[in-house]
Amino acid sequence: MRFRMELFVKDVRASARFYSEVLGFVSGEESDDYMSVRKGDASIGLGAIENLPDGHYLKPQSEQERKGGGVEIVLEVEAIEAYYRSIMELGYPVHGALARRPWGATDFRIVDPDGYYIRLTEKR
């Protein structure tokens, strides 16, 4: 089994820039309303949320409604300190500073342009 994720976003190109410039993903498939990005075995599809049909579970019915809460995307990386420095140098906001956790992982968290919560963690 191979895991792949799709995120529905307000601005496909802005999200692709975030994953490329901040996290080092490489752009793949591309159209006006969909792009994919990849890094190693991680693959993320970025689709335009506005193109979801009415009634689709993930399409918000109002500005206040947001599906996908309670989800944390976890990316395991090598050289976590280098990732952290790189993101700090870009001036991108960090939500949870780099720290060694009681369970042994070293990690930090950021939020993408659409509010998806991402934890970058170093393999134990």
From TrEMBL:
Per its record, what are the GO molecular function terms? dioxygenase activity
Superkingdom is Bacteria
PROSITE patterns registered for this protein in UniProt: VOC
Q: Ranges for the VOC domain? A: 1-123
Q: Spell out the InterPro entries in the cross-references.
A: Glyas_Bleomycin-R_OHBP_Dase, Glyas_Fos-R_dOase_dom, VOC_core
UniProtKB keywords: Dioxygenase, Oxidoreductase
Keyword Oxidoreductase applies: yes
Protein name, entry field: Glyoxalase/bleomycin resistance/extradiol dioxygenase family protein
Organism, as annotated? Brevibacillus invocatus
